[in-house]
Design the sequence.
């Protein structure tokens, strides 16, 4: 096995441990929004079992570039996706956000796309990372969680969200070089959506330094364009 693959696998194992730690500590440590900045706001949305704490480095990187940053900490991410979408809507309405970016990791992309038409129209661009628009086969391993059942490939919710995503022209799907969680990888692809290859590993998409740089560059390009 090439050294690069071994290095990526070790890095992903460490990132998964960090992600798990952020999920536990995130119940009591929730990052505050960064409200200052002259550029358009960015809303960060965690995924399954994710908490806002995992976005701390990305938040700092975006804030450094002049973006106001809001982290939608929606609990442990195992409940109903549509209910999480309504909580995300409440955050948008509470902060009176208009013409902003949404970055959703994993299930966070589905949560963002489950918002109402009225609120989705306020989003300038969606960036999803490892989001399985067509469901993930690993979800069958967690049948007790409502979100996992909704992530099944045969779920009516994911079919509805995939159809909704196809109707959008403002989605960029970041697909990991390899992804041990978003299986099959083709589930991250939506016809008409721009695709970008990200780093290797599902957790590293938001935790690895090069991935954070890539995301900031993507937002910068959107802002410039």
Sequence:
């Amino acid at each position: 096995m090439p050294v690069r693959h071994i290095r990526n696998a070790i890095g992903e194992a460490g990132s998964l441990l960090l992600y798990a730690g952020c999920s536990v500590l995130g119940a009591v440590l929730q990052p505050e929004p960064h409200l200052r900045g002259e550029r358009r706001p960015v809303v960060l949305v965690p995924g399954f079992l994710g908490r806002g704490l995992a976005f701390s480095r990305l938040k700092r990187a975006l804030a450094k570039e002049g973006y106001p940053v809001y982290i939608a900490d929606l609990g442990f991410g195992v409940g109903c996706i549509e209910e999480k979408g309504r909580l995300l809507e409440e955050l948008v309405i509470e902060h009176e956000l208009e013409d902003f970016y949404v970055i959703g990791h994993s299930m966070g992309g589905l949560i963002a796309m489950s918002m109402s038409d009225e609120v989705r129209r306020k989003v300038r661009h969606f960036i999803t990372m490892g989001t399985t628009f067509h469901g993930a086969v690993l979800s069958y391993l967690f049948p007790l969680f409502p979100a996992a059942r909704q992530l099944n490939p045969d779920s009516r919710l994911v079919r509805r969200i995939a159809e909704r995503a196809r109707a959008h022209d403002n989605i960029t799907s970041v697909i990991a070089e390899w992804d041990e969680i978003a299986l099959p990888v083709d589930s991250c692809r939506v016809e008409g959506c721009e695709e970008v290859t990200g780093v290797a590993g599902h957790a590293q998409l938001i935790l690895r330094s090069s991935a954070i740089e890539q995301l900031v560059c993507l937002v910068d390009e959107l802002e410039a364009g």
